[in-house]
Amino acid sequence: MEVEEGGVQFEDYFPSMMEGSGAEGFIIELCNGFHLLMDVEKGLITFESLKRSALLLGLQDMGDDEIVSMLSEGDLDGDGALNQMEFCILMLRLSPGLLDGPKQWVEEMYIHEPDEEALWF
């Protein structure tokens, strides 16, 4: 992830992650990413938790408007924050490489029912 003029640019590593770990491993990694970014007390990715994470990731140049925009992009229920499902949906939507990859990846992700414990720890 890089902050450039005109917004944040992401490099799409998801196809290689999917290829290396399969659908279940990829979903677990997405969940791990959510947990790294979330506000522990709220169990959500909030403006504050995302801003704090941006600083830790070296993205201190990321403006408040860009953080709000990222949250808005994935906020399906309108609460101003991202729950785990909204985060995973957003990450998948932002990865054109996953949908361009082998059809098997997409099928595995949609038919796979990961272990409940893996998603909610």
UniProtKB/TrEMBL annotation:
Source superkingdom: Eukaryota
The keyword Secreted appears for this protein: no
Gene Ontology MF terms: calcium ion binding
Record-annotated EF-hand domain positions: 62-97
InterPro entries: EF-hand-dom_pair, EF_Hand_1_Ca_BS, EF_hand_dom, KIC/PBP1/KRP1
Keyword line: Calcium
Entry keyword annotation includes Calcium: yes
PANTHER family listed in its UniProt record: CALCIUM-BINDING PROTEIN KIC, CALCIUM-BINDING PROTEIN PBP1-LIKE
Protein name: EF-hand domain-containing protein
Source organism: Vitis rotundifolia
